[in-house]
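User: Predict the complex.
Assistant: Input components as received:
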Amino acid sequence: MPEPLIEFRNVSYAAGERRILENLNLQVLAGETVVLLGRSGSGKTTALRLVNGMLQAASGSVTVLGKSVPDWEPERLKRSIGYVIQEGGLLPHFTVARNVGLVPELEGWPKERIQARVDELLHLVGLPMEVYGSRMPRQLSGGQRQRVGVARALAADPPVLLFDEPFGALDPVTRAELQREFLRLRMDLGKTSLFVTHDVREALLLGTRIVLLEAGRLLFDGTAANFRASNLPALIAFQEGANDVF
Amino acid sequence: MMFSDILQDLLEEGLPLLGEHIFLVAVSVTVAAIIGIPLGLFIAASPRWRAIALGIANAGQTIPSLALFGFLIPLPWVGGIGARTAIEALVLYAFLPILRNTVTGVLNIDPGIRDSAVAMGMTRSQLVRLVELPLAARSIMGGLRIATVTSIGTATIAAAIGGGGLGVFVFRGIASVDKWTILAGALPAALLALAADALLGIVERRCAVE
């Protein structure tokens, strides 16, 4: 069996008295897109932040690229993982080009190399450098900002990407467009991703595997087909809830 | 004596005094900024350090200025008569607005922006240099503006302890009960304050990000 890129072993996390994750066991293998599905408060974002060291597990261990999170130098770990959040999380005082080239800049790449990489990435996400490179984030639409966020996450070519409800704030049409882009990029780049969402349809569309979390516990871990066919009560409730919404 | 002679005397004595005045303010605000801005960036993250530093700075502000100048004179090492003692007192006053505005500027940064900057793998010093300083710049400039304008006013009292500046005219006018001599010091000081306010206000607005 191949070595997992991300592995949770008996991971628990609490914020004060509130237990957010309980005994989570999870592996993400190379090339997979594992979707963490759950309502708000299910612990899915916490799980994501345990991977890039924004949070530290209270007990158990999180291993990333074969190395336990506390053994990583914190900045090194974060720069080895692409991180995409809602609205892209762009720096408002940097141009689009500088935002995309941020991690390479932190890594001290030479200017020409950063420029070439930014150019390549902006083309990849459909925002040509000549038109968008010198714009400021506030001059972009929500969907465009999200594309820039994805380009930025890919900049230093990290083997693992984390997505925290990246398309949650977008209108349905733009969201569908970006979901298609996501699938295309996955085909082209073959990256490994851990993707957080509360949207069942998004989970079924994007995930090669779906992990359902509720109140910090893992309820289901399997393929989209298994998820659809499953008759666990909590799962059915979640799917019905989703049907009400759409 | 002709009116033009009086005016010439005034200019001959007044221009150097104006120069001294600007020197007192420029040095004080610069020193206060060199201490206040880094300290503000450093303490902004900690509620406890924030309370302590702002408390001390606030207390410094409440001492009446003339009294503070007086207190400093007899102190060994730092005290004495002259411009240096005046500058020390002015630094103490300029310090609070600069420190407070730096802290406010940092605290007003959207937590999501800081979070995503940390998640990109910024070190603490990169976070300060690339995110906190530029995004707090407008507020920091506001603090420098307030510090400069109030220092121009307070610096007139420097003359009381031999610090020079436009206050020399003011105190001489008070002693001789001559409103024109008082005005010769007070009016340029007021105009200087207005000019500094306008000029630094422009710089402040240019520092805005959104």
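Chain A touches chain B through 20 residues (CB under 8 Å).
Let me know if you want any component modeled separately.
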